[in-house]
Amino acid sequence: MSQSFRIRKGADIRLKGESSLKLAQTPNIDVFAVKPTDFHGLVPKMMVKTGEMVKAGTVLFTDKYDAKIKYASPVSGEVIDVVRGEKRRILEVRIKSDGKNESESFTTVNPQTASRDQVLTVLLDAGIWPFIKQRPFSTVANPNESPKSIHVSCFDSNPLAPDLDFAMKDVMDDFAMGLEVLKKLADGKPVNLGVRTGTTAFSGMGGVNTYSFSGPHPAGNVGVQIHHVDPINKGELVWYVNPQDVANIGRLFSTGKVDLKKTIAVGGSHIKEPQYYTVPMGANIAPILKDQLLGDNDRVISGNVLSGTKVEPDGFLGWDDSQITAIPEGNEAQFVLTNGWLGLGFDKFSLSRTFPTWILPKSKKWDLNTNTNGEERAFVMTGQYEKVFPFDIYPVHLLKAIIVNDIDAMENLGIYEVAPEDFALCEYGCTSKIAVQDLVRQGLDIIKEECA
Description:
Elements: E1 2-6, E2 31-34, E3 44-46, E4 53-54, E5 59-63, E6 66-72, E7 77-84, E8 90-97, H1 116-125, E9 133-135, E10 139-140, E11 150-153, H2 164-167, H3 172-186, E12 191-196, E13 209-214, H4 222-229, E14 238-240, H5 243-255, E15 261-267, E16 275-280, H6 286-289, E17 298-302, E18 309-310, E19 323-328, H7 384-388, H8 395-403, H9 407-412, H10 424-428, H11 436-451
Parallel strand pairs: 1-13, 11-12, 11-14, 12-13, 15-19
Antiparallel strand pairs: 2-8, 3-5, 4-7, 5-6, 7-8, 9-10, 9-14, 15-16, 17-18, 17-19
C-alpha cells in the first residue's frame, strides 16, 4: 500500500550549523551511561552493583512493576557509578568500557518462522525491549498487550535533525531484519513506514505499508503520521520504533549479540565542524565535543532544540536521541533599542509576522539562542497554535482541559493521540510562554492513572 499525505500546518525552523554529510572518525569514548530518566514513568530496580563487570546485553536494571522489561548495558566494562538524585532516585548507571566490546550471547530465532512469543522472549531477555514505545502515553510498550498497528517514521523533520537516508545507508540489512521482527510482533496487524516524499532509501521493504509525507515540520513526527494513517481512539493501542532502533533490533537477531549504536548528527551554530559520528548508545559526549564548541556560554542539547534535553558538555547522549546540538545560551543583556523589545528584529525569526524577516528568502538560516524574551503570562487565544499543529484537534482547548483537570474533556479533545513532542512548535510560538510540553505530559499522566 502506498499513499501520500501533504502536511500543510507546521513550520521549518532553519538553523545554522547543519551537519555536513560526512562521517567523522569516532573518538575514543570510554564512559557510557544508561539513564532511567530517559524512560518516563520507570521505577528502576538495580541488578548490578558498583565495581561489577558487565558485557553488552547484561541487565543493569529492570522495571520495578514489570520485571520482564529489562534495560541492558550498551558496552562491556565496569559499572563505575550509580548516580542518585533527590530521595535517592537513580539518575544514571555509568559503565567504563574495557574496549573489548564483548556481548552476552543470546539464542535467537528466525522471526519469519518463529512464534510471536519466541520473538518477544528474545527482545525481553536481551534488554532491548525499551526501543519499542506505545501510544497513548508515549511510554515503553507493554509486552503483555498487542497493538492495532506498528509505525516507523523513516525521516526526522526537526531542526538540524540527522538525514536518515545518510545515517542508515550501511545498516539497511539490519533494518530489514528488524522489520521482520516488528511484523511478527504485529501478529498480522499492519506495520507502517512513513517516508519523506521523493526518497527511495526505504523503498522495497516487503510486507509493510509505506506512506509518503511532505510539508514542514512536524511532518516527520511519528505522532503526525499515526494521526493521518491510523488514528487512536480510546481503548486502542499502537506501537512505534525509531528506524535506527529497528536496525539495532535486527542486528540482535542476525548475530545473537547486543550491539547498540547510532549514527548521530552533531550540529548547531556553536559547533565548529558539524558532522556525523557513529557511537554506542549512552556515549559520553565530552570526547565528541572536544575542540568543537565555539565558546563557554553554549547550550548543549541531547536531541533537537525543540524537545531535547539540556546536558552538560561532559554529559551523556540520551537513549532516544540521535543528535547533539549546541546553540548560544542567550542570557546576555540586550539593549532595548537594538536587540531588545524595541529593536527592529532583522536578526530574529518568528512564526508570525512580528519581525520584517518574514520577507526574507526561505533559504535564510538563523543563529537563534535560548532566550524566551519574556515570562509566563495569561494564556490567551491567539490562533498561533492552530497554524503549526497538523492534528484534527483543538490544541488550546485540550491544554486548558488539562489545566483544570477535566478528564472527560481531555478524552473528547484527543489526548490519546498526542505526546509532548507534538506540541513543541506550539511551545516555541506561544505568546504566553507556557511550558506546553510539560503540560501535555502532565495530562497524559493524569489519564494513565485514571485508566490504571
